[in-house]
Amino acid sequence: MLDSFLTFINQHTPDLKHQPTLLAVSGGIDSVVMVHLFHEQGLPAGIAHCNFGLRGEESNADEAFVRALAARCNFPVFVSDPDVKTFSKSHSISTQMAARELRYEWFEEIRRSSGYGWIATAHHSNDSLETLLLNLARGTGLPGMCGIAPVRDHLIRPLILSNRAEVRRYAEENGITWREDRSNASDDYQRNKVRHHVVPVLTDLNPSLETTFNASAERLRAANTLLDEYLGAWKSRIMRDSGGSMNIPIDEILGKSEPIYRLWYILQDFGFLYSQVRAIAVALHGKPGKQFHSPTHVLLIDRALLILKAHGEQSNEGQLLIEDTETPVEWLGMTLCFEKLPSAGALDSGPFAIAVDANRLTFPLMLRKWRPGDIFQPFGMAGRSKKVSDLLIDRKIDRFEKDRIVVLLDGNGEIIWVVGQRADERFRVGETAQEILKISIGAS
Predict the structure, then answer these.
(1) Closest Cα to residue 220, out of 356, 138, 128, 314?
(2) Where does ATP bind (predicted)?
(3) What is the mean pLDDT of residues 318-332?
(4) HSE on the CB side for 19, CA within 13 Å?
(5) What is the pLDDT of residue 241?
(6) What angle do CA 292, 294, 299 make, to 5 degrees?
(7) Which positions ≥6 away from 35 have C-beta within 8 Å?
(8) Beta bridge partners of 152
(9) How does pLDDT run across 363-397, given as a tens digit for each residue?
(10) Domain 243-313 belongs to what architecture?
């Protein structure tokens, strides 16, 4: 354990001896062992602890334990108690994701303001393996198969060369005490399910799983670095700044190997997801003029160019991207809710809910205000298109109400629903539908 720790320092961060490191400490065994290693090696450090208050008195006891640990080591201690539940709700993300964002943002603030060179987390090789498996389950590219990076920007993982068993053995041999989080034994979290049920099966198949994973992750990180260098040079060569927009020659995409991956490599920095890029690549073979939107940019397919522009201020205010249907989203005084149905017949009738074939949806979905020129295929009118403006005229929607009309689109830019008015025929639930999604609205 100690040898692995020193090897990491010598390979990646020899300046730890001269510049203090901010240690992210929860009070659990991994982070407490990391504190012990820094202290025993005489490395300058400070301790940062987030008390999210999610476990009541246990959370407060964790904080007291970390404060006492910092005092024994004579390390400065920083404690934060962010309102994770409010942040989670306002950003429509899970509590875990909200806690992660708040934690790392706060760590970076301390690093900058207090003169720390690095932020250290106590992730070890088992954490890295679990991260890879979670990424594979959710869908990932090459970067997600590399596990947890040993060093990224100012973030380091000095225990990454050790595994969970080695960390525990070190703690026991050195008489180290730590706090146990009861949630680690629960299967309520996805990572725990992987740890308790998936990894043991894989270890039965390959008793050397941790060793082979570490070697594979190292090679994959090297391959990813080389691919970044190659595609980065290609991207710099073909992208052209045209004063307010970026132009990409279409023949530089279609005329190359793996056009979808190349295009995604360019567009990912502008907020486009891989599923969108797949649809964009298909549209390159069609008529020019089609547009695709990310949270920050719009992409226009012109005759010979892809033209990429940042949204104007008005466009940013008039749209919301929805990357999954796990939680409701709030926008412009409206809440959009999602629910899986056993059958289309289970849908409550009325203008404020629709049922769609979930397998026909391409993500991310987008909510935005309707625009002149919007066209859709009204439900019940297969193969016949209609302007949204004509629908609103037919329904005698007054000018003020028109300003509040929004449309829900899929990742291909096709209208799913003129919200509260009429659904699109192309997403209707047919006889072969395997997954039915109810989408409904209500006041937030």
Answers:
(1) 128
(2) 26-31
(3) 82
(4) 14
(5) 87
(6) 40
(7) 23, 25, 45, 47, 69, 73, 75
(8) 155
(9) 889 898 898 888 999 988 877 889 999 999 888 88
(10) 2-Layer Sandwich (3.30)
**Where do you find CATH 3.50.40.10 in the chain?**
319-443
Residues placed in the known binding site = 26-31
Residues making up the binding site for ATP: 26-31
Assess contact for 118 and 154: CB atoms under 8 A: yes
Q: Which CATH superfamily is domain 319-443 in?
A: Phenylalanyl-trna Synthetase, Chain B, domain 3 (3.50.40.10)
HSE-CB at 408 with a 13 A cutoff on CA atoms is: 30
pLDDT in tens, 247-272: 999 999 998 999 999 999 999 989 88
CB 78 within 8 A of CB 50: no
User: H or E element: which one contains 361?
Assistant: none
> What element of type H or E holds 288?
none
Res 92 pLDDT > 70: no
For the chain, where do the domains classified as CATH 3.40.50.620 start and end? 2-220
Burial status of residue 225 (CB atoms within 10 A of its CB: 0-12, 13-18, 19 or more)? exposed
Beta strands 406-409 and 386-387, pairing class: unpaired
Task: Tell me phi and psi for residue 291, to 5 degrees.
Answer: -120, 150
Q: Write b or e for each residue in 284-310: b if 16 or more Cβ atoms lie within 10 A of its Cβ, otherwise e.
A: beeeeebebbbeebbbebeeebbebee
Class of residue 204 by CB neighbours under 10 A (exposed 0-12, middle 13-18, buried 19+): exposed
Residue 64 contacts residue 94 (beta carbons within 8 Å): no
In this structure, is the dihedral angle defined by the CA atoms of residues 100, 101, 102 and 104, taken in order, positive or negative?
A: positive
CB atoms within 10 A of CB 232: 11
**2-220 belongs to CATH 3.40.50.620:** yes
Mean pLDDT value of segment 85-112 = 84
Cα of 38 vs its chain's centroid, Å: 32
Distance CA 55, CA 183 (A): 9
Q: What is the DSSP string of 214-280?
A: HHHHHHHHHHHHHHHHHHHHHHHHH-EE-SSSEEEETHHHHTSSSHHHHHHHHHGGGT--HHHHHHH
Task: Please list the residue range(s) of the chain that carry CATH number 3.30.465.
Answer: 243-313
| 271/280 Cα distance (integer angstroms) | 14
C-alpha separations of 140 from 132, 273, 322 in Å: 9, 11, 19
Distances in whole angstroms, Cα of residue 387 to Cα of each of 64, 373, 376, 414, 429:
63, 7, 6, 13, 23
